[in-house]
Amino acid sequence: MRDLVDALRSHLDAAMSELGLAREDWEGLLAGSTDSAFADVAMPCHSLARVLRKAPVAIADDVVDLLGSSTAGLCSVSSVNGFLNFTADEEWLAMRMEESLADERLRVAAEESRVIVIDYSSPNVAKHMHVGHLRSTVIGDALNRMLSFKGHSVVAENHVGDWGTPFGMLIEHLIDIGVDTPAEEIDLGTFYSDARAKFDSDSAFADRSRKRVVRMQANEPETIAHWQMLVDRSLLHFNDVYQMMGVLLTDDDLAGESKYEAALPGIVEKLGEVGLLEESEGAKVVYPEGWTNREGEPLPLIIQKADGGFNYATSDLACIIDRIENVGSRDFLYVVGAEQAQHFAMVFQVARSAGFMDEAVNAIHVPFGLVMGTDGKKLASRTGGAVRLKDLLVEAVERADAIIAEKNPSLPADERAEVAHMLGIGAVKYSDLSTDRTNNYTFDWEKMLSFEGNTAPYLQYAHARICSIFAKAEIERDSIRDASISLDHEREAALARALIAFPEALDSACAIHSPHKLATQLHATAQAFASFYESCPVLTSEGQTKQSRLALCDLTARTLETGLSLLGIAAPLRM
């Protein structure tokens, strides 16, 4: 409870000074455990024992005595086993709730704006998006929304794979099937695999493909026109998936490998000028200090292959220069799988060694784990291949529709379809975002679509339930936003304690680029509301109590709606 921690500092200054402690001796301990079973804030005194040469229990008792009644109206203070326990006063909590009620941002402070580039999604041209693109797209989109809400200027970059040697065979295959084939009639499900099969089995086709690469790199107009057709066809598919998912990416956010192609020779030249470039078996490489292979030999970062082609590292270095010089950013987030950790660490090190970016630039790899099936293996289709993302999303909506039809058969068909979309897509996203991104997670239809537990349907239903309270009573929600709030019942106070944590949870999620921090707080809020609603009658209560409880309901609904929207998930008005 950051608000309480902030308020306590001034009260503790005098008491700690009496003990001979400077603020730097104890301030770091105050953050302590803000999820204590005993109090809102539990401050351990054990490390102070070495400074004061007293037992932690005695130190905590002394501080309680020195504080006396100074924290009255803010919190109660107790000493338990060497911990200072601070429990927020209900009146103080109520005032914070009234502040949130009147604030459209729910007391979330905007930060000093920075230009932040988020590199995410990154599918490949001429291929279907598959489940391997799910986490990057969902996590990146949530970070985009959260950081934008905090006041930053977010530049989304979709670094699609739209250049390189495979395009020689793809263009030749396009020519074989007919360049007049309408883009929408090109089947991405088989296009790449068919081209690869021909490349591997037909030497003449392979030779044509290699020559086509040279023509593409020379920007031959006819070849570029064929390449553009493949890109356009792929964008139809990408945008179809993005629209269904409700993510923020558009064509304006495309920053594919082709964007940096012209800059790649210059990267090689610059690395040579600063003395970092070496040759290894005909390739041009950089050996970042400290990196070795399994045999203990220096590990190279390949910049230009022996055949003259460029590597991913070269493109990533060009990205860095572009983002600094042209985008004007000093903060880059790369939402890419954990298996690329070594690649990015080496690229960042080379970029700093070459002077492409200095220590003021924050280039951060935001890794994530795999999507696993219920069999404990990497999620795959029945045939063992990659699960197409569009197919997965369609199935999610269909499953959600069946659930809604059973739970609320009277819901009109058009509204049911809309709610089913919110529920199905929300379930897929939340199952991902509620998991610590560094871990693998299991894709389990039954669990993610459940109305119980830490799921999107549970949170969405809590929001819809609150909306139904106001609809039933025909009360406009904004009519109670100047109400006085009282927390006389323990369940009211528990709900307030969950609600007050929303800004802190969002800040934590942004600071460590982990949306699950926000998801965890939203689930705790929904749980606290369920307990409150069960114990504290709303519409049948009277007078100020009724107004206060309606205000808590509204504040809960707004917190859930805002939090879910920051995760890219819709909150239905009814279900």
Radius of gyration: 28 Å
Percent in strands = 5-15%
What is the molecular shape?
A: globular
In CATH, the homologous superfamily of the domain at 389-566 goes by the name: Isoleucyl-tRNA Synthetase, Domain 1
The average pLDDT value, as a whole number, equals: 94
Strands ordered across the widest β-sheet: 5-4-9-10
What is the fold-level CATH name, i.e. the topology of the domain at 389-566? Isoleucyl-tRNA Synthetase, Domain 1
The CATH class of the domain at 389-566 is: Mainly Alpha
Oligomer: single chain
Structural category is alpha/beta
- Uncertain stretches of 5 or more adjacent residues: none
**Main pleated sheet:** 4 strands, parallel
Percent range of helical residues: 40-55%
Structure characteristics:
single chain; 575 residues; Gyrase A, domain 2; three-stranded antiparallel β-sheet; 9% strand
Describe, in plain words, how this protein is organized in 3D.
This protein has 575 residues and is of the alpha/beta class. Among the domains are: 2-88, Arginyl tRNA synthetase N-terminal domain (Gyrase A, domain 2), CATH 3.30.1360.70; 161-244, no CATH class; 389-566, Orthogonal Bundle (Isoleucyl-tRNA Synthetase, Domain 1). The chain is 52% helix and 9% strand. It contains 21 helices and twelve strands. The strands form four sheets. It has a four-stranded parallel β-sheet with strand order 5-4-9-10, sandwiched between helices. A three-stranded antiparallel β-sheet has the order 1-3-2. A hairpin with a 2-residue loop joins strand 2 and strand 3 (83-88). Helix 17 (456-473) crosses helix 20 (516-535). The protein is globular, with a radius of gyration of 28 Å. The model has no long low-confidence stretch (mean pLDDT 94).
